[in-house]
């Protein structure tokens, strides 16, 4: 189980106001459990945890992970 969470952090930098970072629950019941709103230039640094197994990003942002960097588009 530990390996599926890892210790890595990922970084999300908002390129516009109102970017949403949505945490989805781990386990058989996949649902939103947290929504964080970032304004332009704001950065969120987070990990996958026992509660969070997936993250959805809505809006223009740069996302950096150990797998690489991706910039979302409109
Ligand atoms: N309480 C959440 C948790 O421990 C906080 C969190 C961690 C989170 N990583 C996240 C919330 C990613 C949103 C997105 O899982």
Automatic annotation (TrEMBL):
<dbReference type="InterPro" id="IPR016031">
    <property type="entry name" value="Trp_RNA-bd_attenuator-like_dom"/>
</dbReference>
<dbReference type="Pfam" id="PF02081">
    <property type="entry name" value="TrpBP"/>
</dbReference>
<feature type="domain" description="Tryptophan RNA-binding attenuator protein">
    <location>
        <begin position="7"/>
        <end position="72"/>
    </location>
</feature>
<dbReference type="InterPro" id="IPR000824">
    <property type="entry name" value="MtrB"/>
</dbReference>
<dbReference type="GO" id="GO:0003723">
    <property type="term" value="F:RNA binding"/>
</dbReference>
<dbReference type="InterPro" id="IPR023558">
    <property type="entry name" value="Trp_RNA-bd_attenuator_dom"/>
</dbReference>
<dbReference type="GO" id="GO:0006355">
    <property type="term" value="P:regulation of DNA-templated transcription"/>
</dbReference>
<comment type="subunit">
    <text>Oligomer of 11 identical subunits arranged in doughnut-like structure.</text>
</comment>
<keyword id="KW-0804">Transcription</keyword>
<comment type="similarity">
    <text>Belongs to the MtrB family.</text>
</comment>
<protein>
    <recommendedName>
        <fullName>Transcription attenuation protein MtrB</fullName>
    </recommendedName>
</protein>
<keyword id="KW-0805">Transcription regulation</keyword>
<dbReference type="GO" id="GO:0006353">
    <property type="term" value="P:DNA-templated transcription termination"/>
</dbReference>
<keyword id="KW-0694">RNA-binding</keyword>
